[in-house]
Design brief:
The chain has about 220 residues and is mainly alpha-helical. It is about 50% helix and about 5% strand. It is built from seven helices and two strands, in the order βαααβαααα. The protein has helices at about 30-35, 35-60, 65-85, 125-130, 135-145, 155-170, 175-195, and strands at about 10-15, 110-115. It has a two-stranded antiparallel ribbon with strand order 1-2. Helix 5 (about 135-145) packs parallel to helix 6 (about 155-170), helix 5 runs antiparallel to helix 7 (about 175-195) and helix 6 runs antiparallel to helix 7 (about 175-195).
């Protein structure tokens, strides 16, 4: 009999397909090409903060995250990740990110999150700051400081720079390096979902590398 416990499945799922024919030099200017996205994301993140405050009240009084707000905040995180995947969060694709909050099934990377039917009213008071502090320290190292973002550098930025140099020199993205970068980003997005009150599932202190991860397939995904 196999008594080994199966790893816990997180309600968020991050998947990605590494482009097999990445440009050797496009990565040098992707930050410039992505400027229109950065402008839009500034406004979206302002709205994200307001939506999160409203959701905080909703969870505190009803134990539920208002569904329209859930889809919006999840969409902002998804949009931000697609831009990061294109640029210095991963450099995993040369396909330009779409301007949409919705999931795009045929884009090389997808981030999906199951809608929680019930959330703890008590946890909402502490999980986004007190309980998440250990993870903030970790992802601060991953992303480069307290005000962590994919544009901040950190370990993820260093690794993607190595990937860009490898592309320029050999025309190939080292697969092991890609798997590591994906594991770091998966950790970051799990913490983001928890801190944004989108789930009560505490992020594991675990580096799940690779382009895919376990998924129960039973929960309702954010569109």
């Amino acid at each position: 009999m196999n008594t080994q416990a199966a790893p816990l499945v997180h309600p968020a799922r991050l998947t990605a397909v590494l482009d097999p024919r990445l440009s050797r030099w496009l990565w040098l200017v992707k930050w410039l090409l992505a400027l229109p996205h950065y402008v839009v994301l500034v406004f979206l993140w302002v709205a994200f903060v307001g939506a999160s405050v409203a959701a905080f009240s909703g969870i505190l009084f009803t134990g539920r995250y208002p569904r329209p707000l859930f889809h919006f905040t999840t969409g902002v995180l998804r949009w931000s990740w697609r831009v990061a995947y294109y640029t210095f969060g991963a450099l995993g694709t040369d396909r330009y990110p779409p301007f949409t909050l919705a999931d795009v099934p045929d884009y090389p990377t997808r981030w999906q999150l199951a809608y929680p039917e019930d959330l703890s009213r008590g946890l909402v008071l502490v999980k986004w700051w007190l309980l998440a502090i250990p993870h903030y320290l970790v992802i601060g190292f991953f992303l480069g400081g307290v005000h962590a973002s994919w544009a901040g550098g950190g370990l993820v930025g260093v690794l993607t720079l190595f990937a860009g140099v490898a592309l320029a020199a050999t025309g190939r993205y080292p697969r092991g390096l890609f798997d590591l970068v994906m594991g770091l980003n998966r950790w970051v997005l799990r913490v983001a979902a928890y801190a944004a009150l989108l789930t009560d599932v505490y992020p594991p202190f675990r580096l799940d590398q690779g382009s895919d991860e376990q998924w129960t397939g039973e929960e309702e995904l954010a569109p």
